[in-house]
Every structure is written in C-alpha cells, then in structure tokens.
Structure prediction request, 209 residues.
Amino acid sequence: MKRAFPGAASLALTLIVVALSLTACSGEDSATANPPETTTTSAAAGPTCPPAWTTGWQKLADRIGAPVYCPSWLPDPLTGEIGGQWEAIHSVTAQGSYLIGFLWFERDANEVHVNLRGYPGETDVPDCNGKPCFSGGNGSREVAGKNVDVYTVNRGADTWHVLYAWKEDGSLYSISQHVVPELGLSYSAVVKNLDRIMAGLVKIEPQQT
Prediction:
C-alpha cells in the first residue's frame, strides 16, 4: 500500500468502517455480503413457530389428535398466538375440524383478517348452509412446495377472502385473508401475504400421551 501522507492509514481505516456501515444498512447488499455458510445455514433452518405461540398450537394439535399448522408470520399487526390479543375466532368441532381467526380492525382505517382451518381425516370442501364454503375456483398453484387450490368466492368466516386450500395426509387445510381494496388490501397484496404465510407455516404434530 502506498502512503501519501502521515495518518493515511487512519483515514483509510475510517473510510473502510464507514463503507462497512453503509453496506450493513442495505438489505440487498448485506445479504450478498454474508458468507455462503451463513446464508446456507439460515435457509436450511426453515421457519419456526415462536415459543410464545407454540403452546397454543400444540394444545390444539393434542386436542384434536391431528397435525396443525402454526403461522410463523402474519401481516402486521397480527401475531399467530392462540389466546393472544388478535385472536378473534376459535372454533373446534367434535370431529376435530378447527377454525382459528386473527383480526385487527379500525373503522375507515384498516382491517387485517386471516383465517386458518383444518379438517382432519376429511378432504372434501366443507358445506355452508347447503353450498360449498370454498368456491370461485381460480386454478391451482405451487406455493412453498404445496399444491394449493385458490378460491375467490367463499362463505361464512371466509367471505370476501382469497383462500388457499391444500390436501395433506388425508386432511384438508386452508388459509385465507380478507380483501379490502378501499383500505389498500388489493387482491394482489393479499395473494402476496398468503404466499408468505404459506412459506412460514410450521407443522405441529400431536404429542403422544
């Protein structure tokens, strides 16, 4: 290294520190700057159900004797904590099917409403007063490694929602979110959220007793 004047080393060190600080503030640059080992390890780890949420989802799985899906991410300000401040619907039938809904609402301001359902041992679309609860089929997609059927005309708690349904091990599961265009939740925005929720689902198996 050439030394142009006394103290150049200190100046160079300062510039390097500043450059590193700016790189750390940039999400894209920071990601590319990470060592390959760190990136690979994070990707391999996969999503996790936060400890504060795990208890509720584990209790649900144990109650119905079947796997359930904990959402490791939900749109702000919702959290996936059963029994938490945002849980608005908690329904479990004698057959073990469940509906867990999370809702945040401010009149004329915003609304975020997400439902998660499971139908252990059943793969048929459920019935709502003589009509399919999920309808308005909009094709199938692969999301986070699962083949989901997309529904845009739904009934009951999923009215005005975009809904993803998938079958796994002889059971039907679904997630949905309310579309509210006038409050900024367009169809495309909701689909983006559902894709992220799907990618963050964590399967919780019932514990053996």
Summary: The two ends are 68 Å apart (CA to CA). The mean pLDDT is 83. The domain at 51-204 is CATH 2.60.120 (Jelly Rolls). The chain is about 30% helix and 35% strand.
